[in-house]
Every structure is written in C-alpha cells, then in structure tokens.
Specification:
Number of helices: 12
Radius of gyration: 20 Å
Structural class: mainly alpha
Shape: globular
Largest sheet: 2 strands, antiparallel
Length: 296
C-alpha cells in the first residue's frame, strides 16, 4: 500500500476517534457483543457436537438475533433468514446438518476455508440442479456472509464478517475488487480487511466500525449534494457533471425505501437485476430482493 493511501486511512481513524459520541456508541456495542458472544458460541458448539439439531439451531438463532443477540446484525436475509430457508427447503435434515457442521467450524487457514465454503455452496447448487429446491429458495450467494458470521464468532481477529457496508467502503477506496464469485469475493475482502487493520494496528471490531464511519460519511455527502440541488432549484442541464450520480442516488434511495416498506408489510420484494448491486444506507439492494420472480 502506498503512503498516501495509508495516510488517508490514518486520518480517517483519527477523525472518527475525535467524535466522542461515535466512540461511546461503538464501545457500548462492543460491550454487548462481548456479553453475548459466549452464548452464541455455546449454541454453535452444541450443534457441531451433535447435542442440538439443525432445527434447534435455526429456531434459537432466528429468535435471539431479533432480540438480545441483535448486536452483530445477523438477523437479516443473509443471516437468520438464510438459515430459515435452508432448513425449510432442503429435504434431508441429515445432509444439511453434516454440511453445516463442517462449514461452520472455524477453519485453520484460508485454504481450508476456501474448500469448506466452496463445498457448502456446491452442495446448495447441487440441490438446485436436481430440482430439490429453487435458487430463490436457497440463494447460495448468501453463504459467504452466513458462514463468515460463525467463523467470526469463533475467531474475530482472523475472520471478518462479510458486512455490505464494509465491502462497499473497501470497493470504493479501491482496496479490493468484487468479481461476482461469492466465495472468491469474500476471501479478497478478508485479505484487504486484515491488511488494513494490521497496518492501522486496530482490532477487527474497531476497523469494522471505521468502515461504517466511512460509509456514513459518504452517504451524508451524497445526501448533502441532493439537498443543495433541491434547495437551489438548479436544473439538471446546469449540473451536468454530477447529474447522473444525483439522479441515480435519488432513484436508489427510493428503491431502498420501497423495498423496506414492502418487507415491513410482509411482502416479497423483487428488484431489477441491473439495480441489485446498488447500495443505500449500507445495504445492497440485492440483499432486499428475491433472486428471481416466482411463477405466477
């Protein structure tokens, strides 16, 4: 990494830490995470040891990530809801149990991790290929977030969670490039994350919070641009250099709001494929969408 990039990251870390409210918020979050992590590990270890079923794992994970385990943000479409769909749609509980026992156990190195994550994705794709479930039901591309979440609980400093805000920030800053290969993209993200955290001499959670801070700062900048254009009544033709970006940001925000409203009302949401990589408020639109339209 060149010195200018490193200096920029150090400056952001300094700026973030100068905000006492930001520090207080994340200190509290980390305290809560520390308290619940042992409970979450207890559930995982019981499952891996065969003491509880995959249905018990699913039920506890779904219920508690909505309440007292909410501090890791694992209740969404790639977290608890992903596991719900696997248990619901995979016919063989025994096969699913064995796949998850292997995949969720923390790997000793990246080579083993690549193999385990690849095997789980391959298993899900195999179930889809033989017609046991649909892609919309299993959504293999969500596996890296789900698996990395459990690895992170076991070894936080070695396995960062594949949070959308973190990967978005690293992509914007040119630290890693996503190539739409679910497993490969996670490991590219991980290498960039660990390298920067080591250079800055910060913990995994500290760097995760910094990536959130950077993402929020960029969102505020985009919002400010939109508000200025709206307040001044500047016509599109007069702001040609930023016109497309402003219009896109407004469109993306509207899609995000509509998707969120739809989910609140209990509806299933579908977003056009060419919009699913867009991000608003730290969420990729694809995370809120069905992967394909159902047969009507």
């Amino acid at each position: 990494m060149d010195d200018s990039k490193l200096d920029r990251w150090r400056q952001w870390w300094s700026e973030a830490n100068s905000d006492s409210s930001w520090r207080s918020t994340h200190d509290h979050e980390d305290q809560q995470r520390t308290k619940i992590r042992s409970e979450m590990l207890g559930l995982l270890n019981s499952f891996i040891a065969g003491s509880v079923s995959v249905e018990h794992l699913r039920g506890e994970f779904d219920r508690r990530t909505r309440t007292d385990w909410r501090w890791f943000g694992f209740k969404g479409l790639s977290g608890a809801m992903f596991l719900n769909m696997l248990v619901k749609h995979i016919r063989s509980e025994i096969a699913l149990t064995e796949q998850l026992k292997t995949a969720l156990a923390v790997p000793p190195d990246e080579s083993t991790a690549t193999e385990r994550l690849g095997d789980l994705i391959g298993y899900l794709e195999g179930e889809i290929a033989v017609g046991n479930a649909t892609k919309a039901q299993l959504q293999p591309a969500r596996a890296p977030f789900f698996v990395s979440a459990w690895w992170h609980l076991q070894q936080p400093e070695d396995w960062p969670v594949y949070y959308p805000t973190g990967r978005k920030t690293l992509q914007i800053e040119g630290e890693y490039e996503a190539k739409d290969k679910a497993a490969d993209d996670y490991f590219a993200f991980r290498r960039a994350f660990l390298e920067l955290a080591a250079v800055l001499n910060v913990s995994s959670w500290e760097f995760e919070h910094l990536l959130d801070w950077c993402n929020n700062r960029e969102s505020q900048k985009r919002t400010a641009v939109i508000e200025v254009h709206s307040a001044t009544g500047v016509e599109n033709d007069d702001i040609q250099p930023n016109d497309d970006k402003t219009e896109e940001a407004t469109h993306t925000k509207s899609q995000w709001l509509l998707a969120r409203i739809g989910q609140k009302l209990g509806c299933k949401v579908w977003i056009a494929a060419n919009d699913r990589k867009k991000i608003w408020n730290g969420e990729t639109l694809g995370e809120l969408s069905l992967s394909e339209l159902p047969n009507l």
